[in-house]
Write a structure and sequence with these properties.
The protein has 344 residues and is an alpha+beta fold. It has one domain. It is built from five helices and 13 strands. A hairpin with a 2-residue loop joins strand 10 and strand 11. The longest helix has 24 residues. It starts with a helix and ends with a strand.
């Protein structure tokens, strides 16, 4: 593909056999499509931690030398990740209708579900979002099924805790003997060895949690879309509280999460030709902006992102889409920019 030659031909071509009209619902025949404008999607992954004290929590220091073990249940939140990305939404000011012509191949268009142009004379490659690696609540084994008869028959909670702590130390000693190859009945192969160690680890974890309690961690994703036209100078996207989690911007119970956008190009400065109808397929050339997110005085995200409203619009002339030239174009549905263009 000689992309540079094609780009020059776009600027030099002047012939046009059809006009592309602004789209008015209910009027005109053809394919209606939108160019996208940029919205900034702020995504916050917050972790909800739920603590449930163990049955022997008051004996954690006495028998296992574990400090700072509390007997009070609690729930709190932590921010795990904050990121911002550019997403395309239909621009109502850039809605057009492609008139159908017998000699015109540009009517072979692929659109998104929102009507944003994706491709002409070809199919846009499928886009797959990278799934979030979210932490889900763990399964906690029932510790009581590992307790011996002596522990269960103990006359007091303190005695049960003492015997359980001794059982934990016995498990640790058994693991050490196996790992050193000093156990009387050593596993015969590596798979058997791993199975025994895994089972002992599970028993130790279950019994230890009777002292330390259980911390369940669950990740949740929160998103909000902000429009650059509304101004993004110290814009509050969310608020955050360790006790309540992610809150709305107007909830003063949390600390603000600020979003800032800075660019050398002023928003809305582009002026398209007045009174002239675009002749061909329009596409965007987006500008760029530095987007940052700050929380509690620290910058937690900063990246240069494409912003369509900071760029301008160009046109692929209709001469590229007659029956003599098979031109294929793929657009970025988030920005409206050309991703790939080639021809036979």
């Amino acid at each position: 593909m000689k992309k540079g030659i094609i780009a020059l031909s776009l600027l030099a071509a002047t012939a046009a056999t059809y006009a592309q009209d602004p789209y008015i619902p209910g009027k005109g025949e053809g394919i209606a499509y939108f160019l996208p404008k940029t919205a900034l999607e702020v995504r916050v992954i917050a972790t909800k931690v739920t603590y449930q004290p163990g049955e022997f929590c008051q004996y954690a220091n006495r028998f296992l030398r574990l400090n700072n073990v509390t007997a009070q249940p609690e729930t709190y939140w932590k921010i795990k990740q904050i990121e911002v990305c550019s997403v395309g939404v239909p621009d109502s000011t850039k809605a057009y209708i492609m008139k159908l012509k017998d000699k015109d191949l540009a009517s072979n268009m692929e659109l998104t579900d929102d009507g944003i142009i994706k491709a002409i004379n070809t199919s846009a490659p499928a886009t797959e979002e990278t799934p979030y690696k979210l932490e889900k609540p763990q399964r906690h084994p029932n510790a009581r099924k590992y307790l011996t008869e002596e522990i269960l028959m103990a006359g007091s909670t303190a005695k049960m805790a003492e015997l359980t702590a001794k059982e934990i130390f016995n498990i640790r000693e058994s693991k050490n003997l196996i790992l050193r190859g000093q156990a009387e009945n050593m596993p015969k192969d590596g798979a058997s060895l791993q199975l025994v160690i895994d089972n002992l680890n599970q028993q130790e974890q279950a019994m230890t949690e009777m002292f330390t309690g259980i911390n369940d961690r669950e990740d949740q994703v929160f998103t909000v879309r902000l429009s650059p036209e509304e101004g993004l100078k110290d814009r509050i996207a969310f608020r955050f509280s360790e006790k309540l989690g992610i809150l709305t911007p107007d909830d003063l119970a949390g600390e603000p999460i600020y979003v800032n956008l800075t660019s050398k190009t002023a928003l809305g400065t582009q002026e398209e030709g007045k009174g002239k109808q675009p002749k061909g397929v329009l596409y965007n050339i987006p500008g760029k902006a530095n987007v940052s997110v700050s929380f509690e005085g620290k910058t937690v995200f900063e990246e240069e992102l494409p912003v369509t409203q900071l760029g301008y619009t160009e046109v692929l002339t209709d001469g590229l889409f007659d029956k003599k030239v098979n031109t294929r174009v793929v657009f970025n549905p988030n920005t409206g920019a050309i991703v790939k263009i080639d021809k036979d």
